[in-house]
Amino acid sequence: MNLKAKVLVALMCVLMLSTSGYAFRFSVGGFGGLNIPIAQEDTESGTAFGAKARIPLMGSIAIEPNILFAKNGDASYDVEGGWNETMTHEGGKYTSFGVDLVFGSIMGYKGFGAYGILGLSSSKFEKKGIPDLTNGTYWFGLGFEYGFTDQISLDIRGKAFIFPYKDEANPNSDDKGSRKNGLITVGLNYYFGFTE
Amino acid sequence: MKNIFLIGLRTLAVALIAFFAMGASCITTGNVMVVEYLDDLSAATGQTITSGDVNLEENEDWQDHKEDINGIDDLGFACRITNNSNASASGQLYVSPNDKDYTTEAAIRANGILVLDGIVVPAGETREIKWQESYDYLKNFELVKEVIFGEQFHYYFIAAETPFDIDVTDIVLFMSINGKP
Is B47 a member of any domain? Predict the structure, then answer.
């Protein structure tokens, strides 16, 4: 994909997401939950936790710089032959630094809100015995938030992430593969700033 | 409710645009376990060493995904090594491509690709290496993958010290391949 096409895609995304409105409220928060592998036989569900900050951009669009630590659970396999036992191997872990684009009810006032999430991050995948992989990662999902007050809210998010990579040792394919995971997290946020 | 639906729809639309930009293979792939049970081996100093042979064309799981494999994400082993000598031995697993079969210890050390190294087995004892533990000894991950992509290859167990006399049984190769699940 050339640069012009990438800029066009980015512009389309912003135009599709933007709505009117005005306020300027920041938030900081932490979250934790489950990391669920999607179509991966070599790992199981694990835990995830991290921190994020929300910075409003325009109308109902904000960006969220974030850091995430996610683990996959151990894989298991029923080994036959002379073993007849279940063996395990660690599933690996991700460390991710990224920015999410959040659109919808982003101001965090008292009451219920919902928003969409699209993100990019730089992620490192580490697993014992194999070289570390560091790549750009894509995110998308939905968030639901309930403000107990105008300052404090609880959110529940479902996000999927795609960690693409290419195996340079494979002589038969130029295609990229990917690892995909779903995150379900609960977060606590504190809002500050000013409103219209 | 209408708002949530609209937000979901917008997210999906933008995610789809991003997905098409990434390429279809990146989206549709998953990780599949392929496990190959290998023949037992014996090796001793001064004897002709016979390699074990792997032919992944006979592995049903590999064949099922062969056309769509993007990569090998992970390699692991399990085995039982018996040290028949009266000195401790450090077990080593080597592999070589199908067109290069070695029969001497010197040739294996000089030309084979070292996969597992440093598995210490005391004199007269048997040591079990299971899937997770094998990663403590794994070497040359990228080179070994290139050999495996050839589908047919040889493997050899020897010891780092000489003289040695070892039997290796219940050898299992674990692979996580990335392709269409």
Answer: yes
